[in-house]
């Protein structure tokens, strides 16, 4: 995964000795400031300057976002899954 300093997440896969972009996750309206992976449940959570978080799940090879409204006044700056991957915490500048 990579964050190209904008509103996208790029997911790469290995193809021989090359890394090839497999997916682009685009849902945020501002820069993405935090990302975390949940390997057991195959989900990704992102947060950003738009004060929202998205939980991304893969279905039939396509990543689908679920909006989580955070009700914060400043940009979300950090996100981390819990050890059980059933909830996450978000930090902000407020």
From TrEMBL:
One Gene Ontology biological process: Arp2/3 complex-mediated actin nucleation
SMART domains hit by this protein: WD40
Gene3D superfamilies in alphabetical order: YVTN repeat-like/Quinoprotein amine dehydrogenase
Keyword Transmembrane part of the UniProt annotation: no
Subcellular location: Cytoplasm, Cytoskeleton; Nucleus
MF (Gene Ontology): actin filament binding
Taxonomic superkingdom: Eukaryota
Keyword Repeat found: yes
Keywords: Actin-binding, Cytoplasm, Cytoskeleton, Nucleus, Repeat, WD repeat
Mapped WD repeat ranges: 25-56
Family to which this protein belongs: Belongs to the WD repeat ARPC1 family.
Protein name (database record): Actin-related protein 2/3 complex subunit 1A
């Amino acid at each position: 995964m990579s964050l190209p300093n904008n509103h996208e997440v790029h997911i790469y896969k290995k193809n021989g000795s090359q890394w090839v972009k497999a997916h682009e996750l685009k849902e945020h309206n501002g820069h993405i400031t935090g990302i975390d992976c949940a390997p057991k449940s195959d989900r990704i959570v992102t947060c950003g300057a738009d004060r929202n978080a998205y939980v991304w799940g893969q279905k039939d090879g396509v990543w689908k976002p679920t909006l989580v409204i955070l009700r914060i006044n400043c940009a979300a700056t950090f996100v981390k899954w819990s050890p059980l991957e059933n909830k996450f915490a978000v930090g902000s500048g407020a």
